[in-house]
Write a structure and sequence with these properties.
155 residues; mainly alpha; 6 helices
């Protein structure tokens, strides 16, 4: 039975100062027995994060129409400011056409997810070039700001 992830309690509140700290946390979780509170395995979570990181470098297949691009220029800075201060709410799901680009496969081992995540973090640290897209505009976030659990207690 699927978990309604927006209602899950007991999440860790995370705040990272660097990509190295994010990677160290992922490696720690992969090395110990950890419990996921949502619907994805640790491998799927790491693969999802790796995909989002990669999309922030390479861009996405999604190309919004001119109206959405114009609105995005107004909304993205406001959303980014809000997300960095309060965190991204748990359980949100983008529209299906966007979600399919970043959703992990049904079967991903922790080792596969960690390998992809290491590669993506390495790319973020070494490649300065970014392809402009709807995803990369939202994901070029400085490390060390914002919390990831989306609860006011983390701020």
């Amino acid at each position: 039975m699927a978990v309604k992830t927006s209602k899950v309690i007991g999440r860790r509140c995370l705040r990272f100062e660097s990509l190295d700290a994010v990677l160290a946390d992922a490696e720690h979780l992969a090395a110990v027995e950890s419990k996921q509170l949502g619907n994805w395995t640790l491998g799927q979570i790491l693969m999802h994060l790796a995909t989002v990181y990669e999309k922030s470098i390479d861009g996405t297949n999604f190309r919004p129409g001119w109206l959405l691009r114009c609105l995005g220029k107004l909304i993205v800075p406001l959303w980014k400011h809000w997300a960095l201060r309060r965190g991204i709410p748990a359980g949100i799901r983008p529209p299906a056409f966007m979600f399919k680009e970043v959703a992990p496969p049904d079967q991903v081992t922790t080792e596969e997810g960690l390998k992809a995540f290491r590669r993506a973090v390495s790319r973020l640290k070494t490649e300065s070039h970014r392809i402009g897209s709807s995803a990369s505009a939202c994901s070029r976030v400085k490390s060390g700001t914002g919390s990831t659990c989306g609860t006011p207690s983390c701020t």
